[in-house]
Every structure is written in C-alpha cells, then in structure tokens.
Amino acid sequence: EVQLVESEGGLVKSGGSLRLSCDGSGFTFSNAWMNWVRQAPGQGLEWIGLVKSKPDGGTTHYAAFVKGRFTISRDDSKKKVYMEMNILKTEDTAVYYCATGRTPDFWGQGTLVTVSS
Amino acid sequence: DIQMTQSPSSVSASVGDRVTITCRASQDISSWLAWFQQKPGKAPKLLISAASRLQTGVPSRFSGTGSGTDFTLTITSLQPEDFATYYCHQADSFPFTFGPGTKVDIK
Q1: B86 touches chain A (CB under 8 A)
Q2: What is residue A35's predicted lDDT score, i.e. its pLDDT?
Q3: Which of A45, A99, B68, B88 is placed for a possible disulfide with A107 were both Cys, Cβ 3.0 to 4.6 Å?
C-alpha cells in the first residue's frame, strides 16, 4: 500500500523558515517524481513544485510564486522528500501536501503550516 | 505559464443528475490533463489521468474527454458521495498548474 506521511507543520513567524519532510513507502521511491502542493484555508489547490527521480535527471521545478524561497530535495536512501521554506509570509499559511508522480496519483494527509505576522 | 480555467465554478445538482464540468488550458497540453475530487478536510483523490483514463476503483459514472485545450469531466447519475470539489490539473509543461475548482453541491 502506498503511504505518504508529511512531517508536522506548525506555527512560524513571518520571515521565518521551516522544513517539511515527506516519508514514502509502498512504492519504488527512487523512481518517483515527488510533488509539493498546498491549499490555503478555503482556497483551491496550488502546485508548488517537484523533484524528478534521479533516473530522470533529479531536477527541480517550481511555481513562479516560489521565487527562490522554497527548495525541494530528496534522499532516496531514506525515502524522503523535503521542502525547505524560507522568508515565510502570512500568505504561505496553508495545508501542504506531498504527492507522487508527474500526475499526482498518491497524496499524503497534509500538514498545516501557519505563518503569523 | 499555462493557465487553467474551469466552468462552472459551482453547480447545484440532485442525486441522479448528470453533471458536466469543463476545463480549458491556455495552450495545448495534449492529454496531460487530470481530474481530482476533494472533500472537505481530505486530500485530493485522482479520478482521471491522461484526460480519459479512469483510475482503478473509480466508479464508471465518472468519465473524461478532450485533448489539446478543452476537456470535460462528466458524472452520470450523481451519487451522494460525489458532492465535492473537482479540480483539473495540467502536467504538460512546467510549472504545472491546477484549475480553480468546481464545487458540486446539493440542490
């Protein structure tokens, strides 16, 4: 069974940093493209970015709004994907999901990140 | 960036109704279009990939059509568990993007 489990989010002050992680199991993690997607309260889904599998180049791609503030990485030996978020803003308050695949087919349960002013 | 639009933004329907949601991409995305269903407080669920490929376990009352820029999700004979928000997603070119969503609620 495919499982994705995001680390606990939490409360962070505006301008601060936070690193999320996502543990994958039940699939060949090293072959999977891994996405991060977020959803602000009461809003729609917003694609943040992804890291390709190393066989596919291991490159990262981001939405324009990231503007260098977020960095996605992976550790295939630990079956984890990470997202380092810096210079957080109140508008980054959202539930953050990791998901597998070019088309996100399996999703974690999400983790809430709250950025206070 | 490729912009995705959906219509309608919301629809009120009854059990047994046929519901059609459209998604339009701002440029050709071939068949790199997926449909997701999301219920409150839950993670999205992939229903259809590659514009028309029904995922395992998804009821056959869901179907997807289209290619290029225009796509459709149809739910025939709406069931109580289908009341949710539906999103389209393009994975043709980076950055990937979601549509704004269509809320299907009870009339």
Answers
A1: no
A2: 98
A3: A99
Specify whether the CB–CB gap between A15 and A117 falls below 8 A: no
If we measure between CA atoms, which residue out of B97, B72, B71, B99 comes closest to residue B85? Answer: B99
How many angstroms separate the CA atoms of A22 and A36, rounded? 9
Rounded distance between C-alpha atoms, residue B55 and residue B69, angstroms? 22
The stretch A55-82 carries a mean pLDDT of 97
What are the beta bridge partners of residue A113?
A10, A94
pLDDT in tens, A75-106: 999 999 999 999 999 999 999 999 999 999 99
Which residue from A44, A102, A104 is facing B101, i.e. has the nearest CB?
A44
Contacts of B95 in chain A (CB under 8 A): 47, 49, 61-64
Mean pLDDT of A9-17: 97
| Residue B107 clears pLDDT 90, i.e. is over it | no
To which residue do tokens 């290029």 refer? B68
| Cβ of residue B103 closer than 8 Å to a chain A Cβ | no
Q: Round to whole Å and give the CA distance between A99 and B34.
A: 14
List the single residue in B1, B46, B85 with the smallest CB-CB distance to A105.
B46
**What average pLDDT does this structure show over B27-56?**
98
Q: Do B95 and A62 touch (CB under 8 A)?
A: yes
A75 Cα to chain B: minimum distance (Å): 23
Q: Which residues of B touch A47 (CB under 8 A)?
A: 89, 95-98
Give the mean model confidence (pLDDT) for residues A53-75. Answer: 96
DSSP bridge pairs for B62: B75
What DSSP designation does A27 have?
Answer: S
